[in-house]
Amino acid sequence: MDAMMTESRYLQLVGDAFRKLEDAVADCDPEDVDVDSAGDVVTLTLKGSQRCIVNTQRPTRQIWVAWAAKGRAWHFSYDEARQRWLDDKGHGEELFATLKALVKETAGVDIAV
Description:
six-stranded antiparallel sheet; 2 helices; alpha+beta; Metal Transport, Frataxin, Chain A; globular; 6 strands
């Protein structure tokens, strides 16, 4: 996490990320991928009613992804140098690549993010 990131910068980055995700799934068949956005949470409902929750964590300036069906969760911090949301575990996982893989694995749909 960039300790110097302001709240307004964080909110701008999150807004951009959420719009990018929503745009990526907008043309998907809702039977495969349905998106619901409410405040600080974007919920993807995939085939078989599996849900992927993407939400903000303002105190840590992160985006969290929860994948209950797989018992997985990720915390992504924005890397200013790379201009990407990267996992905070240092595994090199990137937010959109992770979401793309989850959608492909579960719904069989390729999304362009």
